[in-house]
Amino acid sequence: MTHEIAVVPGDGIGQEVTPAAVEVLESLDIDFEFVEAEAGDAVKEATGEALPQETYDLAASADATLFGAAGETAADVILPLREAVDSFVNVRPAKAYPGIDAVRPETDLVFLRENTEGVYAGIEDRLTEDVATLTRVTTQSASRRLAEFACDYVEDSEHDGFTIAHKANVMRETDGLFRDTVAEVAEERGVETDEVLMDAFATHVCLDPAQFDVVVCPNLAGDVLSDLAAGLVGGLGLLPSANVGPDRALFEPVHGTAPDIAGDEVANPAAKIISAAMMLDYLGHEEESEAVQAAVETTLAEGPRTPDLGGDASTSDVTNAIIDRL
Amino acid sequence: MTHEIAVVPGDGIGQEVTPAAVEVLESLDIDFEFVEAEAGDAVKEATGEALPQETYDLAASADATLFGAAGETAADVILPLREAVDSFVNVRPAKAYPGIDAVRPETDLVFLRENTEGVYAGIEDRLTEDVATLTRVTTQSASRRLAEFACDYVEDSEHDGFTIAHKANVMRETDGLFRDTVAEVAEERGVETDEVLMDAFATHVCLDPAQFDVVVCPNLAGDVLSDLAAGLVGGLGLLPSANVGPDRALFEPVHGTAPDIAGDEVANPAAKIISAAMMLDYLGHEEESEAVQAAVETTLAEGPRTPDLGGDASTSDVTNAIIDRL
Ligand SMILES: CC(C)[C@H](C(=O)O)[C@@H](O)C(=O)O
Ligand SMILES: CC(C)[C@H](C(=O)O)[C@@H](O)C(=O)O
């Protein structure tokens, strides 16, 4: 079976790390058909549209999409692309790697972020000169779908359970519905949960990240708390993510376009290649996924390293070293 | 002139640290009239109401309120009390003290949090079995009032300017209005600003807190980001806060009721006493405010210390040491 993969490098270092991930995938004994498409600032400049319809359609039909990064137009690109793959959960591991400088080296977390609603429902109004409103939406159905995924996830990965992070002491109806629904599904499924207020989580994860493990949260909470965890492991540079839908998924590094180094061929491809490893797992190639993940980890620990990690290797030096270690 | 001060110890260690702060204030040569009132879990248990009307009325008429902490009923107590003093800004310094174990010892931040609207406007609906909504409100007037305060604050404290933290790439109308209004006022006032997305702030403040200084943000962003900063300085235990309104203000430590140690008389009174120092400054007693702040800092550095900081002193040992150093 051939997997059709949409490849959307986007802007900046997206143009460097995405081909690096494709090279790693091509070195495996798996049938891929890669189809490239454009998105981001550059195509907006050229055509007026940050996300051309054909890119949207491609992501909506391919088995999986590899996305790089977008600049100013990030929200205009990534939010519709998540919709294109009908992604209801954003899976964000935040793990400190041996040998990499981290504020909290014991951090090893996975965020399962609701990916369709909350403040991202995007219903805003400027009612008067003085007043603007945004309607935050929470549904039982989306909370339930996320919870089922979370239960599968902890069962498959042999985690003990998960923590629900929310702000239901203030957002009583909406985060209350989220919390209650997720906890109910977990109870039906026999999965253990505990809960924490998102503000308390922010304090406690700094003090002792090892007390948390898998964290399930609403959309914006997941955005902010996973970026916080990124800070604890030493930056966005090494974090992968998966936007998973029922029939397809999109994989992206958490980092941005890094305009300061874009074009210099020294971008660290690790996060994008780990994102590709998540895609391998998603497509059913667990063994190859683990091999790629292990090769990246060995390379992070032993080099070669790009300048962001104190080395002087190029993107392709690192990519080749990872391929050699497979 | 006598200052009328409402004293609302609340639950748990609020009952221990609030009298400690009052003792420190009584040791100064300033005329206070302290009037005590109840709020929290215990009074709810006894009367059915977490915040009795007379406590609300007292806070709404006193010159300032010293609040301790509340347990399960925290939101039912603190949100109406903020309203009682018409507080439009929550001032939250997060500073690492010499001699105290901190994840990021170089942290020295002040959050100026919008204190009336955003998701805290509290407009929620359960539309159907499946759907709940919350209306997030942003007004130009509240943003403007906060911005004026922020400009006064940086001028008085000789800061260079402030950073606006927001999520206007997703909440375009609401956080867009907030950001644009705050930036406009600052420009009119000749105060420098820069801006950062709240998720990016969460990453960058872990990596390098010294790059930030005064941070102005919407209500929930301020809640989460200041609690994150609390984690970086070693916990909520040392953080004070001021809820400032046009004519009165309420001062509270950021910590909770600490049920595990409540009643043992070993609660660390530092955050509550620093909150009282903020009150002294608010009431025009800058010199005494600085003296109390300095006495607390010396005591944190040289002891005696409560068990949370590795010592074996009691609340009153620490309080007496602070008074002795005045
Ligand atoms: C670019 C932005 C819209 C996006 C988000 O808020 O989800 C980003 O921060 C992320 O986390 O992928
Ligand atoms: C108790 C809760 C309602 C409150 C808030 O969210 O503002 C608390 O977290 C705080 O920051 O003072």
From TrEMBL, chains A, B:
Keyword tags: Oxidoreductase
SMART domains recorded: Iso_dh
Protein species of origin: Halosolutus amylolyticus
Lineage: superkingdom: Archaea
InterPro entries tied to this protein: IsoPropMal-DH-like_dom
Identification of the protein by name: Isocitrate/isopropylmalate dehydrogenase family protein
Pfam families: Iso_dh
Family of the protein in this entry: Belongs to the isocitrate and isopropylmalate dehydrogenases family.
Isopropylmalate dehydrogenase-like domain location: 4-322
GO MF annotation: an example: oxidoreductase activity
